[in-house]
Amino acid sequence: xxxxxxxxxxxxxxxxxxxxxxxxxxxxxxxxxxxxxxxxxxxxxxxxxxxxxxxxxxxxxxxxxxxxxxxxxxxxxxxxxxxxxxxxxxxxxxxxxxxxxxxxxxxxxxxxxxxxxxxxxxxxxxxxxxxxxxxxxxxxxxxxxxxxxxxxxxxxxxxxxxxxxxxxxxxxxxxxxxxxxxxxxxxxxxxxxxxxxxxxxxxxxxxxxxxxxxxxxxxxxxxxxxxxxxxxxxxxxxxxxxxxxxxxxxxxxxxxxxxxxxxxxxxxxxxxxxxxxxxxxxxxxxxxxxxxxx
Length: 294
Description:
The chain is of the alpha/beta class. Helices cover 33% and strands 15% of the residues.
């Protein structure tokens, strides 16, 4: 699922901007149209638009996401019945990839088309962004020619600078620091299969990477707890642990203890993109931090 905060944005025009901001897309190609569903979690305001960058500057995010889940459910049912639904007709999404991806591109592009819109793919090798044009200038130009932008890049600072100079909503398709689309997809899947995640316990086993950081932020918004177990030297960075400094996570040295009585156990790769030079060391360090049947 991916884009119907944007659908909601067009349909519910009288709702305050923060309540129907950009949506998000899932980096999870579980189902074609679902990857264009609509989970709207608000971000920083700019010229009347909201920006989905991390779970940053979130006000009324829970309202937005719950509404997005409802729209996603409706879209999925229509998709399974082969009913055409084109709320994004004549709308254009620009996708900017500095980091390569399979699922993110497929989910955004397929979802946008299945909702009647168009998706344009850029990588930095094929655009002026890879030849010295500033992020700020690129944002000014690109946002004049589309309705929404998705960026998958390295530093969080890049996407935030782009958003500050963009005229349209900007979606974080992934940065080194955060991966909000993935976590919204995961939470939607949990809600779909098990009901509300509020008050539940999520066990994170592995690296305290961008996915882990975003789980910790989501825990504050949705009011659940995260048990984090990482090898020594890979612990959570406190400054990325959440939005408001509240205590919604607990660090465990023993992964089995972290997973005990959890409602959901989740993990990610040991070596994230950009850290390939550490692969051998990480294979050794993370040997005991595997999610298995045990």
